[in-house]
Amino acid sequence: MKQKVVIKVSMGDHEKCRSKALKIAVSFSGVESVALQGPEKDQILVIGDIDTVSLATLLRKKVGHSEILSVGAVDQKKEEEKKDATINKNEVTMVTPLYYTMYPYGSTHYSVYDIVPNHEPSCSIM
After folding, report:
1. How far apart are CA 76 and CA 83, in angstroms?
2. pTM of whole model > 0.90?
3. Within 13 Å of residue 3, how many CA atoms lie on the same side as its CB?
4. Which of 2, 20, 105, 121 has its CA 20 to 30 A from that of 65?
5. pLDDT for 24-66, tens place per residue?
6. Angle at 109 between CA 106 and CA 110, to 5 degrees
7. Are 71 and 48 in contact (CB under 8 A)?
8. What share of residues in the chain are helix, strand, coil (percent, to 5)?
9. Cα-based distances in Å from 14 to 5, 9, 27, 58, 68
């Protein structure tokens, strides 16, 4: 089941700690998307099928104090709408070429000949 998890991590004002926390969250198994949020960019929003406690423990060990603020289900309707919107944006129309070649470059042309049986032997001894 996909979840939407918000974890607050005490990172201070260090950009290095933020990037380290994001790398840890992205490398965690089952994560689909990660974003920073909050006024001080100290909250990590993680969406995916994850073990929340394990992620918070890993962030606590590697970065600093972390606490789970909220855990909730992800709305499937919004995701489907986003997917439909991206599909419509990236819709590709097929264009048929005006000229087709019978024998494109790189292929060989084989001639077909009709073999007529000859009743006369080709050997002079017979």
Report:
1. 11
2. no
3. 15
4. 2
5. 999 999 999 999 998 888 899 999 999 999 999 999 999 989 9
6. 140
7. no
8. 30, 20, 50
9. 23, 12, 20, 19, 21
> Could you tell me the two tokens for 16?
């290095």
- Give the sign of the dihedral formed by CA 20, CA 26, CA 28, CA 34: positive
Written as one letter, the residue type at 69 is L
Burial (0-12, 13-18, 19+ Cβ within 10 Å), 59: buried
| Residue-level pLDDT at 17 | 87
Work out the angle between the directed axes of helices 52-62 and 15-27 (0-180°, nearest 10).
150
Report how far residue 22's alpha carbon sits from residue 3's, in angstroms, rounded to the nearest whole number.
17
Report the alpha-carbon angle 74-45-57, nearest 5: 110
